């Protein structure tokens, strides 16, 4: 079975470099335009599995118009706790935030985030989502499905199951970017066949 794993289109929060997380932001006009542009470049799918958040529903509808969808709650984005909705400028004086970014080097270390969900909690949650998706797609005989989720959720999923192995941030993808992967239903390993740059 093939999965087309796609991060949702651009939101206003993305444009403002905010920790959007579980906030239910719609696509910005730029995000809608991007999804309309990317849609025709993607393979067709038999079904879509998506996060419950509005930005994923809107993206899925624009990428694969008229395709039926199933919501999988476990595919939602990481919960950033009190950092949600805020950006670096608004958080720079917060002691928790300072402690977090002070030890992070080139990237924010989500495994060491002092609030919200830990990276391991996200990995565990999205793993359950992948199990549900796999069982449902197999039961329906789908050969290729679309999966519309979030940057953090996809990084968590691929850091565990993606092949060839990459480090966590090696799986970061832009808005409307992602991967075409082959899913092994027994091991849940996701072998990359193609990468989409959004």
Written account of the structure:
The protein is of the alpha/beta class and 198 residues long. The chain has one domain: Rossmann fold. It has 7 helices and 7 strands, in the order E-H-H-E-H-E-H-H-H-E-H-E-E-E. The chain has helices at residues 12-15, 29-38, 54-63, 88-91, 95-102, 119-140, 151-161; strands spanning 2-7, 47-50, 69-71, 144-149, 162-163, 178-183, 190-196. A 7-stranded mixed beta sheet has the order 3-2-4-1-6-7-5. A hairpin with a 6-residue loop joins strand 6 and strand 7. Helix 2 (29-38) runs parallel beside helix 3 and helix 6 packs across helix 7. The chain is globular. It starts with a strand and ends with a strand. The model has no long low-confidence stretch (mean pLDDT 94). Keywords: Hydrolase. This is Histidine phosphatase family protein. It comes from Flavonifractor hominis. InterPro entries: His_Pase_superF_clade-1 (IPR013078), His_PPase_superfam (IPR029033), PGM_Phosphatase (IPR050275).
